[in-house]
Structure formats: C-alpha cells, structure tokens
Amino acid sequence: MHSTDIAHARTPEPATGDRRRWFALAIVMTAAFMDLVDVTIVNIAVPSIQRDEGATFSQIQWITAGYALAFAAGLVTGGRLGDIHGRKRVFLVGIGGFTVASALCGLAVNPEMLVASRILQGAMAALMVPQVLSIVHATFPAHERGKVFGLFGAIVGLGAVSGPLLGALLTEGNLFGLEWRPIFLINLPVGVAALVLGSRFITESKAPRALKLDLPGVALVTLALLMLLYPLTRGRELGWPVWGYASMAGALVVFAVLVAYERAKGARDGSPLIELSLFRVKSFAAGIAVQTVFGVGLGVFFLVWTLYMQIGLGWSALRAGLTGVPFSVAVSVAAGMSVQQLVPRFGRKVLQAGALVMAAGVLIYLAEAERYGLGITSWQMALPLVVMGAGMGLIVAPLTDAVLSEVPREHAGSASGLINTVQQMGHALGLGLVSVVFFGVIDERLAPAEVGPAFVDGFTHALGWVAAVLGAIFLLMFALPKRPAQHVEGAADAEEAPAAGEKEPELVP
To answer: CA-CA distance, 369 to 309, in Å (whole number)?
Structure first.
C-alpha cells in the first residue's frame, strides 16, 4: 500500500488480545533492569575494586565512564539497527553480547582488562537497551502505554535499590573468595534465561521501509562524543592540556557537520542515522534537552555519593547499600504515582515539581553533610534521600512518556535510541565532571587523617552543582507540552492517524 492510500486511514493498533506481549514486556524489562543494576552495582563495588586491584582514581572513573561512553556512542546506531534488521533480532544479539562481556568483566586479571571489558559491555548494552522502548512502542496500543511506562518507572526504582544492595551483599559476601567479581558474574544466568525466553515470546517488528545503516553518520556521532568526553574524563589527571580544550571545541564542529550531513542524507535517500524531523516535534526536542541535563546531574551524584560514604566516611559496602534503600523506595513509589494518578491530572507541573523537590532534597543533604561532618549517620541521611527519591520518581517515568508520546511509531527505534543516547551522554559528561566538581577540590596527596574531611568537602561542593543542574532542568521543562499527547482529549485518535508518508512498523510473528 502506498503512503497516499493510508494518509487518512486509521493505523491498526497492536492487538490487545495477545497475551504474549506481557511475557515480552517482562523479558525486555529484565534487560533494562540488568543494565540499570549494572551501573549502580559497579558504583558500590568501586572502593573494593580499587583496593583489590590497585586501580588508580583515573581507572576507577574509566570503569564507570568507559561503560557510559561506549553506551552513549552506540545507542543511536543500536536503535537504527533494530529498525533495519528487526528489534527482536538486535535485542537478542545485544543481550547475548552483554552476557559474554559480563563474564569477561568477572574474569578480568587487571584494571586494564576490566576497563576494556566494561567498554565492550557498554557497546552490547547499546544494542540491547534501545530495543526495549521500541518493542514496547510497537507492541502495545496507545491506551496501554501509560500503564507500561509506569511499570518502567517502577523497574527504574527497583534497579536503583537492587543495584547497591546486591552489589554490597555480593562484595561483602566474598562468594567463593571471588571478592567483587560476582557483581558481574550474576548477569550470566539472567542473560541466558532472557536469551532463551526472548527468542520465544518477543514479536519481531521493524521499520516498514528498507532502511540502510548510515555508516558515515555512525562514525561522526562516535567521533563527536569521544572528542567531547575523553578530555573531560582524563583532563584533571593530565593537568588539563591545551589539546583537551581543542578537542572539546572540535567536538562542536563535528556535531555541526553531523547535522548538515544527516539533513542531506535524509533528503537524498530518506535513511539517515538521526531522524532530524523528530526535533520538529516540540515535546521530543524539549524532552531531549531535559534528559541530557538530568543525566549530567545523576552522573555526578551517584559516583560522588559512593566515594563519599565508603572512602570519606569509611563505611562498608553493605552499610552504603542499605543507606540508599529509602532513596530507591521513594523513586519507585513516586514513579508509579506520577504516571498513574498525577500526570493525567496535572500534566507538566508534576515533572517541574519533581525537579524542585529533588533540588530541595539535595540542599537538605548538603546542609546535613556540612553540619554533622564525619559523624553523620545513615538515619540522618534518610530524610534528604527520601525527598530526592520522591523528586526523581516524579520525573523519571513520565518524562519518557512525554518525550515519546508524539513520535510516529515508524521512528520509534531512532527516537528511543536518541533518548537513551542523550541521557547516557549526559551521564558520561557528569562522570567526566566528577574530575572537576569533586576531585578538583581534593588534594592529590592526603594523609590518612585528611581523607575524610577532604571527601566531605568534595561531596558538599558536588551537591551544590547538582542543585544548580536541577534548577536548570526546572526551567527547561517550561518547553515541554503542558500535557503528554495521550492525556489530551482526542490525542489518541491523532496518534493513531499517521501523517502522509508514514507507515506502521511491520509486525512479524
């Protein structure tokens, strides 16, 4: 059927009677959960890895930032590969590769091998993760997606709580004398199960037109991200050389070349890596900006928080993990409430309230850290962490829904790849900025008695930056639509009726 034949037809929604879609949802959510846990589980084990492997602070940053870099650099490509070759197929390749990379991380013999394996793990996650939202978008009808994104928000919270706790238990437990290694090896049985069940229950879907992979676009986006993030991560260690500033400035030029090239490619054969037409959708463009800045704030906070508790305050991994439980529970509860009850009634105001609430939690934490110093207890941290978690929950679930709500299903893979890319790019930027906002205020050589007070000072300094980032997010959110499309009367019909030239993804049993 030609596009002109369907210009005024209603798009057939995915079938609501097929129970397999809920099994498929459970499997892709498990993959998203693995990725989320893998980020937080490593943070909690960082001091143990540093101690056991003799890793430098730079290598520690690379164990976290290397994953984020590879993830960010590959996500747009991963989303596009799913559109071209089938989201189920690329998802299964990604989860298989992620499982292998997890095994290599667990068997690493030195910090260099661990960093290399983490980069491979990030690259495989970049194939796996964009397919999650694409499969949801192509499998569930519009009226069910709010519920699904609410579940997604709860999974985000569960990943946040499980990662530190699981990491703490596995690290402290020292299973079979393997010390920190089980934090990676635990992915093996989960990955194998997801691979077997995914091949059976996930329905294949792909873009309706025969798209081609835009290799020059892949090269340009990867080069731009590396030119921006590599100097940020290594800059402090190398004494902020001139070439680092030149590289970061050059990255902006490469981004400009990328945009010009993608525009020309789209006009020439309609198969660009980045679908620039998406940025004409106001909710998508504004949401992308919010996601990027939000990623920066989270990237700074979580690594600095772990270093503060375990190295600065000298707490065990288990105590640090348990201290984070109120935060994660608050994220889960608020995420479920925001999508199901609050956003349908109050729209954008819920997300803005989330940014202000989270900022208030950060400022309470900053005041308490300064007041109690090294004597602070887990109980004293509970209040600011609950407030921060509630704020994050109000943002994290409905934001994805708001960004994707007006995107045509044809571009679901490209759009979800971009959402994840900018969040990870922000996260990697945040991890790079840890060199500036945390280590930048800590002396290189500290006597043992000076470590605690120096890390407390670094932590409070970093919290000031995080609060400023959340203020910027509040302002950016004014550009979001007042209500996500599906909560506006008649929007479901509008979403179901494609614009001329758009087609529905082919669903292949």
So the answer is: 11
- Contact, 125 vs 102, CB < 8 A? no
Q: Give me the phi and psi of 14, to 5 degrees please.
A: -60, 145
Tokens 């892709």 found at: 28
Q: What is the pLDDT along the chain (509 residues), one digit of tens a residue?
A: 333 332 333 334 454 556 777 888 888 888 888 887 887 778 778 878 887 777 777 777 788 878 877 887 787 788 778 888 888 899 999 999 999 999 999 998 888 899 999 999 999 998 988 788 778 777 777 777 777 776 776 676 666 667 777 877 888 777 777 778 888 888 899 899 989 888 887 878 777 765 677 888 888 988 988 888 788 777 777 778 999 999 999 999 999 999 999 888 888 877 777 788 888 887 788 888 888 899 889 888 988 898 899 888 988 888 888 898 898 888 888 887 887 788 888 888 898 999 999 999 999 999 999 999 899 999 999 999 999 999 998 888 778 777 777 777 677 666 776 777 787 778 878 877 887 788 777 776 777 788 888 899 999 999 999 999 999 999 888 877 777 554 333 333 333 333 333 333 333 33
Structure token digits, residue 48: 């143990």
Cβ–Cβ under 8 Å, residues 183 and 45 = yes
3-state DSSP helix/strand/coil % of the chain, to nearest 5:
80, 0, 15
Quote the DSSP letter at residue 9. Answer: S
Instruction: Give the whole-angstrom CA distance, residue 414 versus residue 25.
Output: 20
* Helical residues (DSSP H) of 174-209, grouped into ranges: 182-185, 187-201
Determine the Cα–Cα distance for residues 487 and 477; give it in Å rounded to an integer.
17
In Å, the largest CA–CA distance within the chain is 75
Cα dist from 33 to 123, 126, 153, 219, 318, whole Å: 17, 14, 11, 29, 21
Contact 39, 160 (CB under 8 A): no
Residue type, 330: A
> What is the 3-class SS of 409-430, one letter each residue?
HHHHHHHHHHHHHHHHHHHHHH
